[in-house]
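Page 37, top half.
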Amino acid sequence: QDLPLRARDLVSLSFAHGVLRKRKPARGRIDELLAEVGATGIADRRVGQLSGGQQQLIRQAQAFAQDPELVLADEPLLSLDPARARDTVERLAEHPAAVVCVTHSINPVLDVVDRVLYIGPEGHVIGPVAEVMRSEVLSELYGTRVDVVEVDGRMVVL
């Protein structure tokens, strides 16, 4: 909590800094990234004072700082409220980068993924969403009944 870094400082560190060239990212670009993830209001707060969800937003701004071709997202929805989780899924889906996502919260991402590697206690299965996300497949992976149903046109795992 005593770490003197602000949220904007943490995002700034994601840019390529050079000791020899003394490159520094433009403040406008940092503000733009913070705005894209909905974190403008916390830009000047100390990192140690941020909630888990706010820290998650800062991580997103860091991830997109250099327009990556590949984003590795480990639990990107953790600590986010439903609205921010939905925004995050949309942001990941719209970004031109390839995204590899590890999550325990699969329901929010099912509509935007191409392939799934599903790991359960009884093994794993990989393939297109329609092949993997079926009751019989997940039930076998867990060794118990798992229901995959459609609710309002969306696939949901129960």
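Page 37, bottom half:
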Amino acid sequence: MIAFNKYYNQFNILSLSLVVISLFFLIFKGLNFGIDFKGGTLIELRCDSENIQISDVRASFNNLNLGDVNVKEFGKKGDYLIKFERKNFDEKNSIKIIKETVKNKLQGNIDFRRVENVGPKVSKELLESGLLAISLALAA
């Protein structure tokens, strides 16, 4: 027979201390909001060249000083989804410069399939929903 009640108080203290530490970090350090919550720009591109790697795509965007850049490979080989947080620029000219710079850096047949902006309204709704979900989970 296993005596589960023997360690009841110790594990309650451990659990309570972990919750207090989590709340302490949440209050004083805050949350690290990603691009989905802050807003930003999303670019989907396709590279026809076989020798272009995800690290090459990431390096071509990191050199543009766009802030936090997130590059993911999805779908078939050569399809990439790039998200970055920089929002304070002239969209038409900056997107044109980004496209030209990336095409020159990667030196292949690059097709920009879509360019979208994630606005602060969507981000605000995501933030409120996320905080509500965290609060309800902590209360439960």
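Margin note: The mean pLDDT is 81.
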